[in-house]
Amino acid sequence: MRRFYCIIAALIIFSSFAKGQAVSYKVGEKVTYTIQYEFITAGSGTLELKSDTFNGKEVWHSKLAARTIGMAEVIFKVLDIYESFIDPDTELPVKSIRNIHEGRYRRYNVVLFDHKSRTDSSILTSDLTGKHIAPPRIHDVLSCFYYFRNHILPVDSNLKEGELTTIMTWFCDELYPIRLRYKGIEEVKTRLGKIKCYKFNPVTETGRLFKTEEDVSFWFSADKNFLPVKIRFDIFVGAFTCEIVDYEGLVYPLGANEK
After folding, report:
1. Cβ contact 228:198 at 8 Å
2. How many CB atoms lie within 10 A of CB 197?
3. Helix %, strand %, coil % for the chain, to 5?
4. CATH topology of domain 2-245
5. Distances (CA, A) of 76 to 4, 31, 36, 151
6. Residue-wise pLDDT tens for the chain (259 aa)?
7. C-beta of residue 257 within 8 angstroms of C-beta of residue 242
8. How far is it, in rounded angstroms, from Cα 153 to Cα 223?
9. Sign (positive or negative) of CA dihedral 194, 198, 8, 50
10. Which residues, in sequence order, are CB contacts of 223 under 8 Å at separation 6+?
11. Rounded distance, CA 224 to CA 75, Å?
């Protein structure tokens, strides 16, 4: 179960650089999701981006919080918080926090990112596992999420079906490649109405949780926000769905096709 939530967080949370100029998102963006297990409302989540400071410098502070509610909380209580402090000049993380509460399990991990000391690699320092040498310009899963929205989808929205995009991240104190296969354009029915979306299938490991490599699906709004609208996880014991229910602070009107 612990591994399942770790995978979900990594997949939910995944995001050339336009220095200091984000065009698909901005500080003040906040999105609220509901989490369903089959027909049962099992949880809720929020993803927001605020202004903050780190080592005396202004940064973007992204925070993802997900928790169980109702009967799901009685059966297995979950409160997971992921945070990323992002340098607005490079859109790379300088600090990430993973704060996990799942049943009786607890995990708190802080990782510092040094992208400047070496040109051929990044230096990561974890409070749990020490120093690591990673590929240059590596992301955590939250900064990756924004990178994907701001630099891959705007360029590659004309991807051919079946094309694969890979972004290397650092997650759960190890290298974690996020691989997304483009599946085409679909109209998604949500509580906010029908939204035209780009669909991607993150490549998943078959075995304990998933039967195939395409048992997770993401839908991103086919507008200039490229906002994650819906996520579906098909696992052995059923299906989990995360769906947008509210938002604020978007750069563009949701669903407006301004290409």
Report:
1. no
2. 24
3. 15, 55, 35
4. YmcC-like fold (2.40.360)
5. 13, 24, 15, 37
6. 544 445 444 444 443 333 344 589 999 999 999 998 878 888 999 999 999 999 999 999 999 999 998 888 888 899 999 999 999 999 999 999 999 999 999 999 999 999 999 999 999 999 999 999 999 999 999 999 899 999 888 766 667 888 888 999 999 999 999 889 999 999 999 999 999 999 998 876 665 555 555 678 999 999 999 999 999 887 656 678 899 999 999 999 998 654 4
7. no
8. 10
9. negative
10. 196, 252, 253, 254, 255, 256, 257, 258
11. 40
Phi first, then psi, for residue 223 (nearest 5°) are -130, -165
**Domain definitions of the chain by residue range:** 2-245
Quote the CA–CA distance of 115 and 120 in Å, as a whole number: 9
Report CA 135 to chain centroid distance, whole Å: 20
216: part of which helix (H) or strand (E)?
strand 216-221
Tokens of 80: 């997971």
207 Cβ partners below 8 Å, 6+ apart?
none
∠ CA 101-106-109, rounded to 5°: 100
* DSSP symbol at 159: P
| The one-letter amino acid at 250 | L
Most distant CA pair in the chain, distance: 50
